[in-house]
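Minutes, project check-in

Agenda point 3 was the complex the collaborators sent over. CS summarized: four entities, 456 residues total, and the question is how they sit relative to each other. Sequences were read into the notes so everyone works from the same version.
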Amino acid sequence: MSAENKSPATRRHKKRTNDPEGMRKRVLDVAEASFQARGYHASSIGDLMAAAGVTGGALHHHFPTKKALALAVIEERVAAAVEETWIAPMQAAGSAREGVRTVFEAVATELERQGFVRGCQLNNLAHELSLADPDFRIALAGIFAAWRQAIADKVGADQQAGGEQGTDAQRFAALAVATYSGAMSMAKTAQDAGVLRDCLNALEQGASPTSRSGAKRRRRVLLAPRSL
Amino acid sequence: MSAENKSPATRRHKKRTNDPEGMRKRVLDVAEASFQARGYHASSIGDLMAAAGVTGGALHHHFPTKKALALAVIEERVAAAVEETWIAPMQAAGSAREGVRTVFEAVATELERQGFVRGCQLNNLAHELSLADPDFRIALAGIFAAWRQAIADKVGADQQAGGEQGTDAQRFAALAVATYSGAMSMAKTAQDAGVLRDCLNALEQGASPTSRSGAKRRRRVLLAPRSL
DNA sequence: GACAAAACAGGACAACCGGTCTGTTTTAAA
DNA sequence: TTTAAAACAGACCGGTTGTCCTGTTTTGTC
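CS then shared the predicted structure for the full assembly.
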């Protein structure tokens, strides 16, 4: 099966192209996709090798253990995904609330377009790996913290611009992240992205009672009387 | 305790107490705990057998496959956990918002008492198994639906009592469940239940923007949701 | 008591997992 | 050119996985 490359310029057939960066990227691509679709434990390195078209020697050269591979996926790919879909749009938004709405709607639209819901990469791995290994947990917690901080920073910017005076930035950020994460969890389980819009609407409508127009809006709630 | 020597023969037999219900319960107990602590794929049936003190034959008699065992855990234990910690307290609460607050605080207090966060059983399994098998996904989706419905029903009851007139029951329920699920996800990853209180406070403070004057509330999402 | 079915014991097994090992090729510095 | 290290190939191995199988004991029914 040789005698394929008989170009006179090439004296010997180099059937191997050393491309460490490219090979590493291919492995990370496949691992990222498989971890998302099947999870960490359900993804065998044999499957990953076959899907990426790499040999065991090559894979173990770049990632000595499966844990190292997962850690690389978390630190490089999952963090980048959160950066791309949340942090950057949030910084580019006109306000924190506008940014949250934009991301929710963009994700919902994208999910409806592609027809099925794979879930949030960060939450998927966080649930499976947080208790499995402290290194995993710390890496994942860092991404959550950066995500929340980006939203809180935007609220802080809004406040310096005169808005959001009654808002606690950290709490608002926690609520936004929690709502998104939980909504994605339900969307994945129900295979229906509609719950994302439900949550966004409920969030924007305000969670405080009777915060509708017409009457004086009373915030700060705390239910008044004990009915019943 | 009664008759050890029921047989006149001197050959010793292992005294075996046939207790199908008890053995089944023991297996479910161990499986529920292990799935919660380590997840489905990371829990081997060998470990479960050892922890429950049952043999392979016994386990296989009650649960032919690992999938059947997990399905039983989901339908019997996870559903019961949601019923106990959410649905029943919600029905017993004075109002929907009061019920949500009560549950959030109760869970946060309990987590702080025991010192670490194992996460929400439903969400843990939902993330790992929703895409793994349609049977898993449907069973888990049903629990999510019942959970949301219990909250929505309470909002409906509040509305019939004169309150919550401006609230969309379904959306409110989705938001409550999403917030709890997402907050638990962060709490598990950070091993800190404080985010539960942050989210609850943000929820009660109201997420509606302060500066928005004209409440242009839209009733329905326009995008026609594609099936799936 | 007879007897079929349920309940349980425990070994066996093939497939698979993650990791290691040795060897070969490519690269780049000296 | 020499040479050491990096990059890659591919076989190999011990342990584990989930499941199946045969056999034994208990239970319920007549």
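Noted in discussion: Residues 14-18, 44-46, 56-57, 60, 64-66 of chain A lie near DNA strand C (CB under 10 Å from a C1').
Follow-up: revisit at the next meeting once the mutant set is ready.
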